[in-house]
Design a protein that fits this description.
Helices cover 71% and strands 0% of the residues. It is an all-alpha fold. The protein folds into two domains: 2-63; 85-301, MetI-like (MetI-like fold). Helix 2 (20-63) crosses helix 14 (270-290), helix 4 crosses helix 8 (180-190) and helix 11 runs antiparallel to helix 14. The termini are far apart.
């Protein structure tokens, strides 16, 4: 009778009779649930990554196709046959080499100068005590709220007044002396550096600049690499300002030059245009590949201390 009642109770509850074996199975099931959840998360992330890579794969594939293969239906992901005619037309109809060198010169020059001046300003705002420091920093930080389109026309008028239209000065000088974003980013990182290191340097007779060069900068490599990648990426892809201040074809940067190539009375040469996009992508991938370790450290460490 007792066995019958126990069997009915177990059937109503929906579980088997309690035993060491069934208990271990329940524990094992609970342990497997997090693994299953991680598996589902990884599958989702893989699918999301593939969806983000599809435009990149299509761009590279299109650069090796013939013009008539671009819009075939159903779409052909792999060129058949593979051809370099798009790249040949790109280099034959335009000075892509000059555009590439112009973009490298502009992006590298602005990046180096912004790292220097932004780091100096960040060091002053984080370590040097002077009257009104915090108020000046807040005012400097407030300039980030001004849209770039607001200063576009005044900036153009000033460049024209100086006679810098269609010169390298117009492409570089307005952006050389740091930025509010770069100063804020580096200031947040500098505040995480222990002040005891600077105190020890002052005891040894080091001044502000000695401390800046020998202690702050060597420890700030992750933040500097992060800011360098951001600045280089921004000015490498900058389109509107070079389009306004540059008129001659030889001084154009790569984004503006590719926009000119895409306009034709016979339509857009998609293989040549995608070839130019692939060329513009290579330097960014190389920089991110070599600076990846410092870049990730900068993302994880910057801004930990307000």
């Amino acid at each position: 009778m007792d066995m019958t009642i126990k069997a009915v109770r177990d059937r109503l509850i929906g579980t088997k009779a309690t035993s060491p074996r069934s208990a271990s199975q329940i524990v094992a099931l609970h342990r497997k649930m997090p693994e299953f959840g991680r598996f589902i998360l990884h599958v989702f992330l893989i699918l999301l990554s593939v969806s983000c890579l599809l435009p990149l794969i299509w761009m590279i594939s299109t650069s090796f196709k013939e013009q008539f293969q671009v819009f075939t239906y159903p779409p052909e992901w792999l060129p058949n046959p593979w051809t370099l005619k798009g790249y040949q037309r790109l280099f034959s109809m335009s000075p892509v080499g000059n555009w590439l060198l112009n973009s490298v010169f502009v992006a590298v020059t602005i990046t180096v100068c912004q790292l220097i001046f932004s780091s100096l300003a960040a060091y002053a705002f984080s370590r040097v005590h002077f009257p009104g420091r915090d108020a000046i920093f807040m005012g400097y930080l407030a300039t980030m709220m001004i849209p770039g389109q607001v200063t576009l026309i005044p900036g153009y008028i000033l460049i024209k007044y100086l006679g810098w239209i269609d010169t390298y000065f117009a492409l570089t000088v307005p952006f050389l002396f740091g930025s509010a974003f770069g100063t804020f980013l580096l200031r947040q990182f500098f505040q995480t550096i222990p002040t005891e290191l600077e105190d020890a340097a002052r005891i040894d007779g080091a001044g502000y600049f000695d401390t800046y060069f020998r202690i702050i900068l060597p420890l700030a490599k992750p933040a500097l690499a992060t800011l360098g990648v951001f600045v280089f990426l921004h000015f490498w892809n900058d389109f509107l300002w070079p389009l306004i201040v540059i008129n001659s074809n030889d001084l154009r940067t790569l984004p503006v030059g590719l926009a000119v190539v895409s306009r034709s009375m016979f339509g857009t040469d998609w293989p040549a245009l995608m070839g130019g996009a692939v060329i513009s992508l290579v330097p960014i991938l190389l920089i991110f590949f070599f600076a990846q370790r410092y870049f990730v450290q900068g993302i994880t460490l910057t801004g930990l201390k307000g």
